[in-house]
Specification:
The chain is an alpha/beta fold. Among the domains are: 382-600, 3-Layer(aba) Sandwich (Rossmann fold), CATH 3.40.50.1700; 647-760, Immunoglobulins (Immunoglobulin-like, Sandwich), CATH 2.60.40.10. It has 24 helices and 26 strands. The strands form seven sheets. A six-stranded parallel beta sheet has the order 2-3-4-5-6-9. A six-stranded mixed beta sheet has the order 11-16-15-14-12-13, sandwiched between helices. Helix 6 (88-100) links the parallel strand 2 and strand 3.
């Protein structure tokens, strides 16, 4: 579709004077400021406030676009953008209304929750982090941006970088786990992938880091719940990924639902203005989460009018869905509760984002229908998604090297996830088209061909209780059967097979937003199915589908092989088959600890020692910090993940026992592939500050190397430690390091490490 820039140029020349004639895409801040100032000089107060309004479009048809309420608001320039509209033709029509049927012809932002893919769906973000492959994550985001922009989207509400240490919280699936260092690297990778080099190309879209801040620390793991923590903990454990996104140039930030220091984040001036803008230097757009201004009434803070005032004063620029800004700010300005300068500041930030996206040069930049027909769900994108998915699977157990299984004989594939077409993509995959995707059953049968036979039985429902299952599956229900009949069919199928592959776990909507859990075991009907399969005496591989850590204490004892496949996206069926049959050697490593029990939560590797640490993890020790019933240790720790081969670590060496001021310390270790398969290993380096101004974690991830070794190959892996790696926020929130002793650890996960000490001057 052709640009209407010629029309716009004539208009702006008439309205704004000669300044507009010098505008180009690649411009300086001075040119942008001049352009935006000139435009705002011709805007009414209502039009300025309109730019601060972000409604949800729903799935609007062409007819309602022309005749509906939203269309009229666009003509009046009462919205700055919209989200939740799918389809290039619909989006084009909405943009056309803005730039051809409104007074000032200001283009619209078009947002969407593009979280882990658009039509080509990649693994959920938690799974992606388990690849420990920032280049793969950046590639995922790049492809997501290409596809979303080809369908008219110019703004994604991603990445979510909230640190989470409590697996009861459903949105743990949407983040990168429990560690701030790894989370920061992933945050930067997402931003680079979405935004590209400079937002100038039509396949580069605006990224929005969320949820600012601390949303992953909701009490009891319950979504939307209270958060209460010290500034010291914020700075040292939770804020780093948000800052990393800002440092990477993220164009927008979304405030969180929770309170911070007793004040909802949306109206928290310290958080949004003092920290984000002044301390970190963020200059982009700050948008609320869905309806969060209106929900300040539920918090007990203020009704809509006052909440809108407090949000604007705190630094919020754009109101998502609440209509608080649009419907109350004019009155608040008249009463002196807000100033025109505050409204102008927010309006300017919205317009600047549109300018940086090149929408004033070409409002139809993201409305090329030819791209939509050629760049969605392509063969190339699917191939990359399949490859990345296989990197994210985590091998938790592999007794007697049961995996990989041979692609011959009779294999019983049993479980409700085995042939669940609409369950492969996981949460936040609203743009996926399950009819295009292979199921696990289809992927395995394709891989095995005529060399063997894959037998299938559903085996069980997700839950015994139909209503509970309906609640859990949400918008993606699965077909149900009679519980007893399903079990009988499963056992008959297992009896005919040489090996059993059990596809069990959570269904896709059991994790994600508003999907908190009080128990973390595999659901009841599936647990009973697995117990019955164990009694057959056949070798069993458990394929675990999940969006969070689950409690697998019984399974870890009774099941010889456990492969955690998370939710692998649109190409998961083939990717899982690749790993099952040994075409790909699994290399994923956990970025979140798997508990032995829900009672251990919150659980994370980089915890603090207490005054009475537990001296023996295997027995109960009274008057030490432990539990009567179980160990403090997780079932599977952060950084854990097996391979079909075995990696041996030898000869850890420090270049010196002293890190001199201004110099570097080299840590080296020899890693050897001792097994029979080529494979990837993630070599991890941790530090422990032994004595400090404030209590420091028992260990902290500071670096890692993802290496590939052929069978029998050895390699020296080297890490460089500098003063920067030793820094932390002290009791005065100064980012410093202190002279003293440090422990450095290298290993295959956070628990299995070699260690040495050095002194830092």
């Amino acid at each position: 579709m052709k640009t209407c820039w010629n029309f716009l140029m004539i208009f702006f020349i008439g309205m704004l004077g000669e300044a507009c004639t010098t505008h180009h895409i690649d411009v300086t801040d001075e040119q942008m400021n001049l352009f935006v100032s000139d435009l705002m000089g011709h805007m009414t107060l209502r039009e300025k406030i309109g730019q601060l309004n972000l409604p949800s479009g729903g799935d609007i048809t062409t007819g309602t676009v022309k005749n509906g309420k939203l269309s009229e608001m666009i003509r009046k320039q009462e919205i700055g953008g919209f989200f939740n509209v799918k389809g290039i033709d619909k989006i084009y029509e909405l943009q056309r209304l803005a730039v051809e049927e409104s007074r000032l012809k200001i283009p619209l932002l078009v947002g969407a929750d593009v979280i882990h893919g658009y039509e080509t769906i990649f693994p959920i973000p938690l799974a992606l982090s388990c690849s420990w492959d920032t280049l793969a994550v950046e590639k995922m985001a790049r492809i997501s941006a290409i596809e979303a922009s080809a369908d008219g989207i110019n703004w994604t509400f991603s990445p979510m970088v909230d640190i989470c240490r409590d697996a009861r919280w459903g949105r743990i699936a949407e983040g990168s786990g429990e560690d701030p260092y790894l989370g920061s690297l992933m945050a930067k990778a997402y931003v680079r992938g979405y935004q590209g080099k400079n937002l100038q190309q039509n396949d580069e879209i605006l990224s929005c880091v969320k949820h600012f801040a601390l949303y992953g620390a909701s009490e009891s793991g319950r979504d939307y719940n209270t958060v209460d923590m010290s500034r010291l903990r914020m700075y040292n454990e939770y804020l780093a990924p948000y800052k990393a996104a800002v440092d990477a140039g993220v164009g927008s930030v979304m405030s969180s639902f929770n309170i911070v220091d007793g004040i909802p984040a949306t109206a928290n001036k310290w958080l949004l203005s003092d920290l984000l803008r002044k301390e970190w230097g963020f200059k982009g757009l700050l948008v609320t989460d869905y309806n969060s201004i209106a929900e300040m009434s539920s918090h007990g803070i203020a009704p809509l009018k006052e909440a809108s005032v407090r949000s604007l004063q705190a630094g919020t620029d754009m109101d998502m869905v609440s209509f608080g800004f649009l419907n109350t700010l004019e009155e608040s300005l008249q009463s002196g509760e807000v100033t025109e300068e505050q409204i102008n500041t927010a309006c300017r930030r919205v317009l600047e984002v549109k300018y940086k996206l090149g929408l004033f040069d070409n409002p139809y930049k993201y409305c090329d229908t030819l791209r939509a027909s050629k760049q969605l769900y392509t063969t190339e994108h699917r191939s990359i998604a399949r490859s990345i998915a296989s990197e994210t699977f985590v091998l938790l157990k592999n007794e007697k090297s049961l995996l990989p299984i041979s692609a011959k004989g009779k294999i019983a594939l049993i479980g409700p996830m085995a042939n669940a077409r609409n369950n492969m993509c996981g949460m936040w995959s609203m743009m996926c088209n399950p009819s295009k995707h292979r199921t696990l059953l289809e992927g395995m049968r394709s891989a095995i061909g005529n060399k063997g036979e894959v037998l299938y039985a559903k085996g069980s429902n997700i839950f015994y209780d139909e209503n509970r299952e309906k609640t859990a599956t949400g918008m993606r229900p699965l077909d149900r059967g009679d519980n007893q009949t399903l079990l009988k069919e499963a056992l008959q199928t297992a009896d005919r097979a040489d090996v059993i592959v059990a596809a069990l776990g959570e269904c896709s909507e059991m994790s994600g937003e508003s999907a908190s859990r009080t128990t973390l075991e595999i659901p009841d009907a599936q647990r009973d199915l697995l117990k019955a399969l164990v009694k057959t005496g056949k070798p069993i591989v458990l394929l675990l589908f999940t969006g969070r850590p689950l409690v697998l204490t019984e399974e870890a004892v009774n099941i010889p092989s456990i492969l955690n496949v998370w939710f692998g996206g649109s190409e998961a069926g083939d990717a899982i088959a690749d790993v099952l049959f040994g075409k790909v050697n699994p290399s994923g490593k956990l970025t979140t600890s798997f508990p032995r029990s829900v009672g251990q939560l919150p659980l994370y590797y980089n915890s603090h020692n207490t005054s009475r640490p537990d001296p023996d993890k295997n027995v109960f020790n009274r008057y030490t910090s432990n539990y009567l019933e179980d160990s403090n240790e997780p079932l599977y720790p952060f950084g854990y993940g097996l391979s079909y081969t075995h990696f041996q670590y030898d000869n850890m060496v420090l270049s010196s026992n002293v890190l001199k001021k201004g110099e570097k310390l080299i840590v080296s270790v020899i890693v050897t592939n001792k097994g029979n398969y080529d494979g990837c290993e993630v070599v991890q380096l941790y530090l422990h500050d032994i004595y400090a101004d404030v209590v420091r974690p028992v260990k902290e991830l500071k670096d890692f190397k993802r290496i590939f070794l052929k069978k029998g190959e050895s390699r020296e892996v080297r890490f460089v430690i500098t003063e920067e790696d030793l820094k932390f926020y002290n009791s005065n929130l100064q980012y410093i390091y202190e002279t003293g002793d440090f422990e450095v650890m290298v290993g295959t996960n956070s628990r299995d490490v070699q260690s040495k000490t050095f002194f830092a001057e």
